[in-house]
Design goal:
mainly alpha, Lysozyme, two-stranded antiparallel sheet, globular, disordered N terminus
Length: about 325
């Protein structure tokens, strides 16, 4: 069972554990306890309830969750995230690649690094995320908002997929929202529902915090989802997610190339720089076609692989993790 405990989330582990329990004919019913009684009488293994904290520290402030509505809202998000095994596992693995890039950008723009967890719930840190509402990238910018915050969006270049530029744009939005509302929960709610809606509801309901506003369900859940993401990602083992160091995704080993002239054929350009078009798009998802028009006075930074991409490039050790506490 030791190997299972390293590989399976809590719910699946529970099934495995109870499947291994000796039959009642050879083991005392009394010694097995209530859980054994449940599985023997129903055939259904117990579903462990994930722990929900009574306090959450976020952006340097401690929030008391021990209020009926707040506790239940946070409990809902933690429960759902804990048992959304595939999505949460992928989010954890991608965090090791994404957080080292976006955390310093947030900090440089005056935004607490805890806002990395907002990106986590926006896209599960999928660099190619695209919603039915046409929001794109890890930060899920809509086209109009992206352009408002200085991102290029057209058929050849979509900087919503440029991790560095999109993060800087998101930081500008969040800092502006915080300056308007004076608290991060309302700033985060506005990232989902829009500043016009949050400002209107704060005025109409005479409450300064999104935690005390009645909002449409998606927006009302939003700050709690961010808190839940932080709670689980900071301590995945506590929520049944046991990964080995080399199961997290390694940061890309790439170097920047500044481009000041139009590239008519990106596949050929990629070959000339020791890679291929597929890897070029992997490292630069903001490139949206096989050409890159560059206007006079404009420049782009394209990432190309640094050195060869070997089979062992993905291997990680605990020392190379963004958070060494993710593994034992």
């Amino acid at each position: 069972m030791t190997s299972l405990s390293k590989l399976l989330p809590a719910a699946i582990l529970t099934i495995a554990v109870f499947a291994a329990i000796p039959s009642q004919a050879t083991t005392s019913h009394h010694k097995q306890g209530p859980a054994y009684s449940v599985i023997q009488s129903t055939g259904i293994p117990p579903t462990p309830n994930p722990p929900t904290p009574k306090k959450v520290t976020f952006a340097g402030e401690t929030h008391d969750m021990d209020r009926l509505d707040k506790y239940e809202r946070l409990d809902r998000e933690i429960t759902q995230m804990t048992y959304s095994h595939a999505s949460t596992l992928l989010m954890l693995k991608r965090a090791n690649r994404v957080f080292p890039v976006i955390a310093p950008i947030l900090k440089a723009n005056g935004v607490p690094t805890d806002l990395v967890y907002l990106a986590a719930i926006e896209s599960t840190l999928n660099p190619r995320a695209y919603s039915s509402a046409k929001a794109a990238g890890i930060w899920q910018f809509m086209p109009a908002t992206a352009k408002q915050y200085g991102l290029q969006v057209d058929d050849n270049v979509d900087e919503r997929y440029n991790l560095e530029k999109a993060t800087a744009a998101a930081a500008r939005y969040l800092r502006q929202a915080y300056e308007k509302y004076g608290n991060w929960e309302s700033a985060m709610a506005s990232y989902n529902g829009g500043q016009a809606r949050i400002t209107s509801e704060i005025s109409a309901q005479q409450e300064p915090s999104a935690f005390d506003l009645y909002l449409v369900e998606e927006t009302q859940r939003y700050p709690y989802r961010v808190f839940a993401a932080k709670t689980i990602i900071e301590n995945p083992k506590k929520y049944g997610f046991h990964l080995l160091a080399d199961q997290f995704y390694a940061p890309y080993n790439a170097e920047p190339v500044t481009v000041t002239e139009t590239i008519d054929d990106l596949p050929t350009w990629a070959k000339e720089h020791g890679t291929n078009y597929s890897m070029l798009r992997e490292l630069n998802p903001w490139l949206r076609s096989k050409t890159l028009p560059v206007a006079a006075g404009k420049s782009y930074t394209i990432k190309v692989p640094k050195g060869s991409l070997k089979k062992s490039d993905h291997k990680l050790t605990k020392k190379l993790l963004y958070n060494p506490n993710w593994v034992e």
